[in-house]
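Subject: Sanity check before I submit

Could someone independently write out the structure tokens for this chain? I want to compare against mine line by line before I put it in a report. The sequence has 452 residues.
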Amino acid sequence: MLGALILALAALCAGQSADLSLPFVQPQSCPSSHYYDVSALKCSACPPHLRRSADGLGCICKVGYTMVDTGSPIAVCSLCNRDNQVVSVDGRLCLTCQNCKQCGGSLVQVEDLALRTASCQACTNQTVPNALGNMCVPCHETFIWTTNSCTCPSNNLRGGLCFENTRIPASSGSMPDSIWYEMHLQASYLACANTQYSNQTACQLLTNLVLLDVNGLVSGEALILYRNVPAMTNYLPKLFYVDTNIAASLGQTAPKGLSFQKDSQIILKIVKYDARGNFLGWEDVRGGTLQLCPDTQALLDAAYKFGSFYAQSCTIRVSDLLQRFPEPVLYELFLHYKDNQGQSKVWPVPVRSLNLDRNGLGAGAVRRFFLVDGLTGRKGSLSNPPSSVSYAKDLVLRTYLPTGSPTSEPPFLLTVRYAQAQDLQEQAQVTFGVQYEMNQAARKRDTDIALG
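---
Independent answer below. Compare away.
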């Protein structure tokens, strides 16, 4: 009896000491026919007639099936198997329809969910089917202005917009081999430069296209088009702070009397734009806002304590950078301070791209920068993986002392060096730093005093 008890306890202990390790699997590594099971932390196969969802965390029904979502990662699917049946737009019901196989083009599928029927109806009166194909919506204004209809000759069509005049300034500028540039460069110029449209978002998009071409900016088609936008255009953002050396003018236009106590907080803010030129708002710069390396919040925040030299460097897989930034975000950096009257103000911090130094612009300061761009590296289709990814390899905030009386150098200057990677599994070396330097005039003054 005692011997049997000892054997049972030994078996129990052996079971408790079994290795509980799991293979390390991430969602993006699952095959296209599998989904990532967040409970088991592994890839699991989707059943027949199901396909992986957009987020990769479940399986949804294929075309021709209705879907019931119960919260399970595996949807419940039913086939609409009669010839005169179609799936409702919301994917939940089989509807009887005699002519729905002909829907498409200018026809939409109009549904009566109570009777579980549908019919095809034509869009008229300058309307077109919406993206779901279940209602008619007004066609884009550029079509109506140009042709007074919802059709546009192919020669007048650029980026989904219809233009009466599609003439582009003659140039020999280079353009990245990028589907994003093919889709949007000419269209953004035409919509921005045409005072009839005054398309503000198009002007923002054109500016972004100039800046995203980090290695070909100077000779790029985007910069040539940007410079050909008529001066009367109201919504074209400033690309460069000044057209000459920043040391000659930008430092002189910086606010006077800026003062900071040791370890006081440098208050920085950013304005954000998405790649399409949409304004995303203001945001405080804290911790990892501009830092690609992960760390504790306290350590990342230490970068913005005045007087503290700071350096953070790490290696990150390029695919992980893309997961954090599926599309590029464009930033403009500002110092937030109060003037002598106590009024809250922001001063634009110049951004010096070291890539531009290699391309003949010297110390030219730009207004915008980005951290990761895998969008403009896509060829043929936006659904294709990027053939190259640009990222901010080195980002350094330079402070020139004394900040209260800037001379040639501005009190703050952000420098950025971009690099490109062709392999998504490549390890990218990135650095963020904060440095302090004595400006040249102050250094000379102090030296003269010391020498008598």
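---
OP: Matches mine. For the report I'm noting this point. The longest strand covers residues 389-401.
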